[in-house]
Amino acid sequence: MKSRYSAAKNVFVDSIDIDDYIELNSSVTAYQQLQHSMEKPLKMILLFGRPGTGKSILLNRIQEKLKYQKEIYYFDTPAPTEKEFFQKLFKVLTEKDLPKNTEVNFSALIDFCKNLRGKREIIILLDEAQMYGAEMMEKIRLLSDTRAVKFVVSLHKTEDEDLIAKEHFKSRIWEVIELKNATNEDQTAYVHKKLLKKNLFEIANSIKAKDMKLIHKFTNGNYRECNKLMFTIFEICEYYDENEPSKINYSRIPQKIIEMAALKLGYIHV
Ligand SMILES: Nc1ncnc2c1ncn2[C@@H]1O[C@H](COP(=O)(O)OP(=O)(O)OP(=O)(O)O)[C@@H](O)[C@H]1O
Ligand SMILES: [Mg+2]
Q1: Pocket perturbation via mutation, ligand 1, pick of 132, 224, 227 by most ligand atoms within 8 A of CB
Q2: Domain extents for the chain?
């Protein structure tokens, strides 16, 4: 028989599925900030935060929510070449495919955008923007200067990239929205709601406040790390359930299993 923990484990496979979006205090705040900023006559908005804090899922959510009211597009990762990026942009702006064997003429694209001003307002959500080079970012800025296109630039903040964010972007007048690691409260809601969404009520109940405190400590409130830890916890539970069920307590996840998972992932050492 398949263990009840198999389904629980799969709940925490890292993915950006918009149907799995959960309203958490921090994500609701960031969503509202982002929506509010998008209403202002800003040209660029910066969304940043450490890897795994929920930037991509938030951008997907906002696109999904506003797509019938606004011209809003999500660009997941930078195109492999500048040429392809501008082809994609050309298609979005002109609503036509670029004729074969031609390249986008940047100054013509700028003129085209100037003509759109006041007629259309296009919002482009640029995810993984730390991968765009400085030259590309400059072109993106020039496009936004036409005021026909607004960009939400999402950037993950690591030690080095924090510098980029400061120097390259801070000189422009941007609105900055930052996603932080989750509080214990948000992370608890995240874990429980994810399980409840899949009707895993008993398992959700078996994770107590004390367990969440430990999980929060190990993962620092990072959603991606939380996914990894939860996956590993349920993987261990699954193993015991199938092989040594006497070691499993369905009403309470043994603390030892949380520690075993943390050990396996290197959050703690023997
Ligand atoms: N509000 C939320 N609802 C549901 N899942 C969430 C939420 N916030 C974060 N997650 C989950 O956490 C994980 C990490 O989120 P996401 O990939 O959006 O982070 P990111 O900030 O884009 O990271 P990176 O900088 O590495 O791209 C994903 O599995 C995502 O589904
Ligand atoms: Mg992302």
Answers
A1: 224
A2: 4-15+182-264, 25-179
